[in-house]
Amino acid sequence: MLAKMTSKNQLTLPKSITAAVGAPEYFDVETRNGQIILTPVRIQRGDAVRAKLAELNLQESDINDALAWARQKES
After folding, report:
1. 3-state helix/strand/coil string of the chain
2. Mean pLDDT value across the chain
3. Is the distance from CB of 48 to CB of 55 less than 8 angstroms?
4. From CA 62, how far away is CA 47, in angstroms rounded?
5. In angstroms, rounded to a whole number, what is the distance separating the alpha carbons of residues 28 and 47?
6. Beta pairing partners, 36
7. Which of 15, 22, 40, 46 is the most buried if burial means most Cβ atoms within 10 Å?
């Protein structure tokens, strides 16, 4: 089956292909030996938050500091 890439690097996967793997919303994307490999991923909300925190390189101490700052009473 062919899938065409748009000028915006978007690719529409055939419905029969996504239906065969449970119609996931997200895919892990990697290249291997010149091929693009898509692996269906089920993202839980907590996983998405943890992934964003990791991306931002935030540590638990950063979050605690931000909460302490936000909870300060104005003088």
Report:
1. CCCCECCCCCECCCHHHHHHCCCCCEEEEEEECCEEEEEEECCCHHHHHHHHHHHCCCCHHHHHHHHHHHCCCCC
2. 89
3. no
4. 19
5. 14
6. 31
7. 40
Vertex 30: Cα angle to 28 and 31 (nearest 5): 160
Distance, C-alpha 46 to centroid of its chain: 12
Residue 49 tokens read as 């938050």
Residues in the chain: 75
Lowest pLDDT segment from 14-28, 44-58, 60-74: 44-58
Q: How far apart are CA 11 and CA 14, in angstroms?
A: 10
